[in-house]
Amino acid sequence: MTIQNRIKIQTLVLSMLVLFTAWGFGYIYLTNEFKKSSDKQFEIVLKSAYNMLEFELKQEKENLKYKLDEILNFNGFKEAIISKDYKKIDIYLNKVYLNMLTSNKFVENIIIYSNDGKILYSVNQNKKELNHQVKQNKEIVDGFIINGSNVTYRVKKMIIDKGNNIGFIEISISAKKIIRNLNLYLDIKTGIALDNKVSNDQLKLLDTSDILKYYFEFNKSEDFRFFKVDMQKELLDYSKKSVAYLVIGYDMSDIINENQNFIYKMFWIGVFVVILIIIIVYFGFRTLLKYTTIQSFTDKLTNLNNRDSLNNDLSFDNSNILILSNIKEFSLLNQYYGLEVANEVLKQIATGFEKFAIAHNMKAYRISADEYVLLSNDNRLGVVECGDILEELNDKISSMEIIVGENNETLRVEIYSGVSFNGKLLLEEAQVALREAKVKSLPYLAYAKNLDNKVDTKNILDIKKIIKHAIENKNVIPFFQPITNQYGEFIKYEALVRILNFENGNEKILYPDQFLPIAIRSGLYVDLAKEMLFQSLTFFKDRDEKISVNFLPNDFYNHEIMDRFIGLVQLYKYPERIVVEITEQEGVGDFDRLFKIVRKLRKLGVMIAIDDFGSGYANYVHILQIKPDYLKIDGSLIKNILHDEDSQILVKSITRFAGYMKIKTVAEYVENEDIFELLKTYGVDEFQGYYFGRPLNLILGPNIF
Question: Strands 164-174, 409-411: parallel, antiparallel or unpaired by DSSP?
Answer without folding.
Answer: unpaired
